[in-house]
Amino acid sequence: MTSGLWELVLQGVWVTVQLLFFSALLATAVSFVVGVGRTHRLRIVRFLAGFYTEVFRGTSALVMIFWVFFVLPPAFGWQLVPMWAGTLALGLTYGAYGSEIVRGALAAVDPAQKEGGIALSFTPWQRMKLILLPQAVPEMIPPFSNLLIELLKGTALVSIMGMGDLAFSGNLVRLALQESAEIYTYILLIYFVIAFLLTRVMRGLEKKLKAGVGKAAPKREAAAPEPAGLGGVR
Q1: Whole-angstrom Cα distance, residue 133 to residue 215?
Q2: What is the pTM of this model?
Q3: Which residue among 120, 164, 167, 205 is least enclosed by CB atoms within 10 Å?
């Protein structure tokens, strides 16, 4: 490929990284708000959180992008730029999946920990902040890592809006060179490299968080030598 075509691909990589960053931020915020809401003591809060999860988890991300970019603007009289339309659609969709991760991790915390917080007269927010989340968040990292990789692959869907992400740029290069195998091999490798780097970062974060709550594997201490002359005494 010529330098100009490589520049086009690199611009697509930058757009994909930006979209991944913003949609991951939105999905994370949605995951915690809705996930915590599904454990709330008020039934109406649990119902609303559960309703949101079922709706966005049960719909296609591709169709959601169509709705946000093509259907909603005529209905409300405004138009989102492709970057923010993609961020909104992907963030809300993948946030629904993330909310189940948060809910499951909170439910997995030892009930005795919750009872201890009640015994100490902690408010629900204090129990969540000081007891539940510090123990649950490290357990969320592996499934969140998988969800982040899925979100990375989902960013390719925004090409339907004409957004110049990696998938869209790769298709333009393919049309220019009339060469599919080479171009899409490069695109696959670029997605793989980004996903591999994200996995390394998430694993490092997981180790750091687990070490912070004392869940790192302890080092085994060497056994103390037996006193001389007592080897036969039991």
Answers
A1: 14
A2: 0.83
A3: 120
